[in-house]
Structures are given as C-alpha cells and as structure tokens.
Design a protein that fits this description.
Layout (H helix, E strand, L loop, with lengths): L18 H52 L3 E5 L16 E6 L6 E7 L4 E6 L4 E4 L10 E7 L8 E6 L5 E5 L5
Antiparallel strand pairs: 1-2, 1-5, 2-3, 4-6, 6-7, 7-8
Length: about 180
C-alpha cells in the first residue's frame, strides 16, 4: 500500500524559459520577419509576372499550332470582361481570349482572365493579334510588357518580344533589342 508521501515529491518549478529569454527570441523573430517581408513580396510579384508571361506565351503558341493544324485563321484579343473603367488600347490587364473567327460569330477557344494585379501592355498598342492559317502572327515587331502593378523593382518586369518573322522570346526588362 502506498501513501501520499511515497509517490515522490513534485518539483516546485518546471524547467523552461525565463521571461527575458522569451522576449529575446520574440525580438529576433520580429527582426527576421521585418527583413524577410520585402524580399518575400518581391518574390510573389516576380512569380505573378512569370505566371502571366508563361500563360500568354503558351496561349500564343497554342494558337499558332492550332491555326497551322486546322488551316484556319485565329485571333488572340484582349478580354472584354474588365469591370473597371475602359482600358486604353494595348492594355490587356484583364486577360485575353483566343477566338476562331467564323463569320460574324467567333467562337471562344481559350478564355484567360486576370485579376488586374499584373499589368500587361502591348506595343504598338492594339487589342488583337491575328494569326493567319499558316500559324504566323500578323503583327511583327510586337512587344508585350508584363509587370507587377504594385512593384517598382525592375527585376519583376518581363517583355515578350515577337520579331517580324514571328519568333518569340522572353527577356528581363521592358525593352526588346
């Protein structure tokens, strides 16, 4: 039979951290977060830009391939789904559509909508890019500049350059050389 004293004694203090140690760790964590936050925000903006660049490039390549396979002209055009004020020519921040032009009733093949957090500007300013039946874009010398709306950092700007022969390349920055 055990008595209450035979179970042993409970320690009066549990091992752990002092208040000063906890405050030091919290201070270090706050410093780390304040240093890492701008870097993480830039990383998120670059990721958004890269995603839009990849999507626009993939849709253009898909349109070219489909036009070549089907022998029909297609059109990549700015989406009319924007709920904000009317956009200037060449401003594709709301997204784009891939259309099969058949008379007066074009059919939508791809509809890519954007939230507007990334600016997409086409120069020379236009709201459509026609692709002939041979899969060639009919606007050579085209530049699509994609950048994060809230970022002033040049590292989050990409340009899609399409030369007169229809070759496409993506470069860092906003100028095609």
């Amino acid at each position: 039979m055990h008595t209450a004293s035979s179970f042993g004694k409970l320690p009066l203090a549990f091992p752990g951290f002092t208040l000063m140690e906890m405050l030091t760790v919290l201070g270090l964590l706050a410093t780390l977060v304040s240093v890492a936050t701008p870097w993480l925000q830039q990383w998120v903006w670059r990721l958004q830009v890269e995603t839009v660049v990849h999507s626009w490039s993939a849709d253009l390549q898909a349109a070219r391939l489909q036009a070549l396979r089907s022998g029909q002209a297609l059109r990549l055009q700015r989406s009319g789904q924007c709920q904000s004020a009317p956009l200037a020519n060449g401003d594709w921040r709301c997204g784009w559509q891939l259309l099969k032009a058949q008379g007066n009733n074009p059919s939508v093949l791809v509809n890519t909508l954007l939230a507007g957090d990334v600016l997409v500007n086409i120069s020379p300013a236009q709201n459509k890019l026609d692709i002939n039946a041979l899969g060639e874009p009919l606007a050579g010398g085209l530049r699509v500049v994609v950048q994060a709306k809230r970022s002033t950092n040049a590292s989050s700007v990409r340009a899609i350059c399409i030369n007169t022969a229809g070759r496409m390349r993506v470069i860092k920055g906003s100028t095609c050389t």
